[in-house]
Amino acid sequence: MKIGVVTFPGSLDDVDARRAVTLAGAEPVRLWHGDDHLGGVDAVVLPGGFSYGDYLRCGAIARFAPVMGAVVEAANGGLPVLGICNGFQILCESHLLPGALIRNHSRRFVCRDQRLRIENAATAWTSDYSAGQEVVIVLKNGEGGYVADNATLDRLEGEGQVVARYLGANPNGSMRDIAGITNDRGNVVGLMPHPEHAVDDLCGAGTDGLAFFTSVLRQVPALH
Amino acid sequence: MPSSEFVKEHFVARVVVDVMLKPEILDPQGKAVHGALPRLGFDGVRDVRQGKRFELELDGDVTEDRLAQVRRVAETLLSNPVIEDYAVRVEQP
Fold first, then answer.
1. Catalytic residue check, A85
2. Are the C-beta atoms of B80 and B3 separated by less than 8 Å?
3. A2: burial class by Cβ within 10 Å (0-12, 13-18, 19+)?
4. Residue A152 burial (CB count, 10 A)
5. Which long-range contacts (CB under 8 A, 24 or more apart) does B76-79 make?
6. Which residue in the list A93, A119, A143, A196 is annotated as catalytic?
7. Residues of B with CB below 8 A from A107's CB?
8. What is the interface pTM, i.e. ipTM, of the complex?
9. Chain centroid, CA B60 distance in Å
């Protein structure tokens, strides 16, 4: 089982994401932003960081990278895609997920261990959780406020497309405390917190993030 | 007249695209600027919204086709229609 991790110029968390893939028991594959193919991987992670320096808008330039053409096509075909932080921003800019992410309402960069509730444990990336499960995963962002119009928010909630919500004080102004969402098919997930930083007891807040990477292993046989 | 020919050939049209967050979207940067004004002794400013201005220099005349093209650029790249509005105008030289 191969999971591709895309590196854009300015990606920061691609190495941690590949390490999380390895710890989950899969083989990480390095994908480059200039590639126009996905090298036959079974799933793709768009990692956190500051692709293209966050110029214009976070994720706005990355959306037009050659590799994103392949990612969008594969995602529409059902390939599991996880966008973390900047990856979430790229998924929204690519219209694979609705809404957008704007600057934190506090105007401050937030970096902390964040309590979350997993709302949807039926996506390609969350099946190893249980619905309603509370987890602690690192959150670090400057532009993590999730926004969408009320009709979109109602639809996301009504269709169970909210994957995770912040517990406690809202860290970044996200509407309806949304920390992550999925598409209607459940194969594309965008998440502002960083599960790849919560996979090892040695550092960080624990290993609550690992299940994102183990969940997808169960999806892959269904694809073949 | 040769001189007007010269002007025409080298005329560079400037099209300005202003991009602003939609009114209902929170603008923390505008708020920060607004919050700084009283500290500088400026009062009477009710609100500040921060946006982006893009200046596109086009070769030759601005036609309706070119403007339509600029609008497509504005809505696909320069702005994110989910959170932002844009306005296109031709700047007179």
1. yes
2. no
3. middle
4. 16
5. B77/A56, B77/A60, B77/A64, B78/A56, B78/B17, B78/B19, B78/B52, B78/B54, B79/B17, B79/B19
6. A196
7. 28-29, 31-32
8. 0.84
9. 20
Q: What is the pTM of this model?
A: 0.92
Q: Name the residue among A96, A54, A55 with its Cα closest to residue A79.
A: A96
What is the DSSP track for A46-74? E--B-GGGG-SSTTTTGGGSHHHHHHHHH
Q: Which tens digit of pLDDT belongs to each residue from A88-134?
A: 999 999 999 999 999 999 989 999 999 999 999 999 999 999 999 99
Mutation target vs B (from A56, A93, A97; most B CBs, 10 A cutoff): A56
The structure tokens 């809404």 sit at A99
A194 in active site: yes
**Residue of A103, A152, A170 for testing the chain B interface, max B β-carbons within 10 Å:** A103
Closest chain B residue to A97, measured at CA: B82
Does the structural domain A2-223 have CATH classification 3.40.50.720?
Answer: no
What domains can be seen in chain B, in order of their start residue? 12-91 (3.30.1280.10)
Q: How far is A105 from chain B (nearest CA, A)?
A: 6
**Is residue A203 annotated as a catalytic residue, yes or no?**
no
Place of tokens 């990856």: A87
